[in-house]
Specification:
By secondary structure, the chain is mainly alpha-helical. Helices cover 58% and strands 3% of the residues. The chain has 27 helices and 5 strands. Strands 1-3-2 form a 3-stranded antiparallel sheet. A two-stranded antiparallel ribbon has the order 4-5. Helix 18 runs antiparallel to helix 19. The two termini are 22 Å apart.
């Protein structure tokens, strides 16, 4: 398909994270090919840096838990050992928090510099669609590992593999309180009178797969929650029992009840609710770990999942109220390929509705900051100003407001107060950068999308900061 002069700007701003200096010219020969070339089976690129993987983070998390459980001294007593344990606990927590924040900075630096803007936006979409939050320390401790180890490797594979990796990751299991969910009639449940937690099952159905319109009932949620009992993370003792000491009789018995999986996931047979389960009209025989996995795979393959997530993709990339024809194209690609997300991505890129010139999506604060750095050819260098800017504009680090993830419509991000905060940020950012030609920055950032009114405003500005502020606040730059 022949490309028009505006297609490169559309590709980089709508499918990607914004244009860097000279990038529109480089992509202009084949904007669709630029995006298609980023669809790789190995997934989306990982942010730079030496981020601990999930297994390493589990070890750090166990150290924190061990220190947190240390007994406190008696009333009025001063116990040097207890004080040392308290300081160790605080240090362990601080290290995890700082390491996680640094991972966010690395992700923003990747976004500002990457040549694979479509792959990065695609990965960010799935991280948000299957969201976890750092609002809880326990889940936040694993949130960077969740994105790197569970999301990014699977975003161009089959959806059922992506959702399985996400639901079984410690970040999700802790965020939705699944790690302690116990079958009432399981050996542990009968002994301790422990309870069932339905949070993961509910969000798995409502937000991660079929959606609330699929016709499932509360009974289906409860049945799924029963099927998921046993899905958890290891305790420090269980991790030890998998090692050389597992030959000891007691630890060997413990190890026999724990079935390990990828990224620190474990299935505990002794807390799994026995019996068959019926979810959305289908009965699943008793089967331990296999039972919950079978239900999840069926939910991932359900036609309602294809329909719902195809619409969400179209709404994210193209318009808050996406064209029905685009949704139909994505759903057809999803269904025809059995949920192959590479095929769905190709259908998005090939669809004519994707290439309409008029920008219809407002940028989130994160998008705005990253695209500004890309326009200037810079990267965020320090965490504190990045953290403060995102907090001021309503999108704090790794802290979406609910399991639905960050909102994705103009109504959520373009209110009067939000625009004032964006203006304040744009003016502050414009005052700190050194560029010699603001007209060239505008042309490089927007290409054929640069309107005459904005071009003249930038050209006639009385100062470099004023010119850049007008550019960053222009409708063309605020939308994608």
């Amino acid at each position: 398909m022949a490309s028009s002069p505006i297609d490169a700007a559309v590709a980089l701003t709508r499918l990607g994270l914004g244009a860097r200096p000279g990038e529109i010219a480089r992509v202009a020969a084949d904007p669709r090919g630029w995006a298609m070339a980023q669809i790789r089976r190995q997934g989306a690129p990982r942010p730079p840096g030496d981020l601990p993987d999930t297994t390493e983070r589990l070890g750090q998390y166990f150290d924190y838990q061990s220190a947190a459980r240390a007994p406190a001294p008696g009333a009025g007593a001063v116990d040097p050992a207890a004080e040392a344990r308290r300081e160790a606990r605080q240090a362990a927590r601080r290290d995890i928090v700082q390491d996680t924040a640094q991972a966010f900075l690395s992700r923003a630096q990747l976004g500002a510099a990457t040549e694979d803007g479509f792959a990065e936006r695609w990965a960010l979409f799935w991280s948000n669609a299957l969201t976890v939050s750092a609002a809880k320390f326990d889940s936040g401790a694993f949130i960077a590992q969740y994105e790197c180890d569970a999301v990014r490797p699977h975003v161009f594979g089959r959806f059922e593999d992506l959702v399985m990796a996400c639901e079984q990751h410690p970040a999700m299991l802790l965020y939705l309180d699944q790690a302690r969910s116990t079958g009432p009639d399981s050996p542990v449940g009968a002994r301790r009178r422990a309870g069932l937690n339905e949070n993961l099952a509910r969000e798995m159905m409502e937000l991660h797969t079929v959606g609330a319109d699929a016709g499932y009932t509360q009974a289906d949620v409860t049945e799924l929650a029963r099927a998921l009992t046993g899905w958890s993370i290891p305790t420090a003792r269980e991790a030890e029992s998998a090692g050389a000491d597992a030959a000891r009789p007691r630890r060997a018995r413990m190890a026999a009840q724990v079935q390990p999986g990828p990224n620190g996931f474990v299935f505990r047979a002794n807390v799994h609710e026995p019996g068959a389960r019926t979810v959305m009209g289908k009965t699943y025989p008793p089967g331990g770990l296999d039972q919950g996995q079978a239900v999840l795979r069926d939910l991932a393959r359900h036609p309602a999942t294809a329909r719902r997530l195809s619409r969400r993709l179209a709404a994210h990339f193209v318009a808050d109220s996406p064209p029905d024809a685009l949704v139909a194209r994505l759903e057809a690609a999803w269904t025809r390929s059995g949920g192959d997300l590479a095929q769905v991505a190709r259908a998005l890129i090939a669809a004519p509705e994707t290439w309409t010139p008029r920008p219809a999506k407002i940028k989130t604060p994160y998008d705005l900051i990253v695209s500004t750095h890309r326009a200037l050819g810079t990267r965020p260098q320090r965490l504190p100003p990045l953290r403060q800017a995102l907090a001021d504009m309503g999108q704090p680090l790794y802290a979406p407001p609910s399991p639905e993830g960050w909102p994705d419509t103009a109504a959520d991000w373009a209110g009067p107060d939000a625009l004032v905060k964006r203006l304040n940020w744009a003016a502050a950012a414009a005052a700190t950068v050194q560029v010699s030609d603001t007209d060239a920055v505008a042309a490089d950032a927007l290409g054929a999308r640069l309107g005459e009114r904005t071009r003249l405003a930038v050209a006639r500005a009385e100062s470099r900061p004023e010119a850049l502020t007008l550019l960053f606040m222009s409708p063309e730059f605020q939308r994608r």
